[in-house]
Design goal:
coiled coil; transmembrane; rod-shaped; transmembrane helix; alpha+beta; 16% strand; Alpha-Beta Plaits; 235 residues
Amino acid sequence: MTTTALMPLDPSVSPRHAARILPIRANLLPQDISDGRRARRTRAVVLSAAFLVLALLGGWYWHATTAKQEAEKEFGQVTRQITAVQSQQGQFQKLTQTKNSNKVMEQQLEKLLAKDLSWQNLYDLLRSTGDKAGVELTGITGGLAPDDAPGSAANTGLGQLNVTGTAPDKKAVAKYVDALAKLTYVTDPFVTSVTQQDDPERQDEPEVEFTLTLLITDKGLCGRFSAAQCKAGGK
């Protein structure tokens, strides 16, 4: 039997401190085992990350494929609708041609009726102006000048009017001429004749007959196919 000599205990050290295990750690595994464990952990992390990436790519591919299929489906529906509408347009081809013909006709009418004039409005204007001046119109004749007429529109106007009527005296005729000069639809009122009536039955109320001419301005142009619309709805 072997005898082991024990060191005497220090009286200043308590039994609990004497039995305390020292906090010493030591890795006693061989280096190859530690490296193998570390490699397995690293491989597990890499494989998990790769699996996660593949899962994300798979989900994205599935979503993209589904969206593409839906887009192709909608495109097919729209294509069929366009084809159906195009086939229906053939039924309204005559209507489309008629509308195009109407547009061409309206453009031609706008050119032909560029100098359209509401004669009724013009006659009413001359008569109402005469009533205010105290004269009575007995006749109004006139017409528009042709496009190839010599002279400018500023000098000859768009046309000429010949007005005849009766008035109580020459002052009334002059008043009527002054009122006509203030109108915009006509210009240059010119009295060509003023004659005294020799009526024995109306010696107490003598009258004069007058004749005057007027030039029509472009202010009076109006009509359905003109730039300006007539106030009374045209001719």
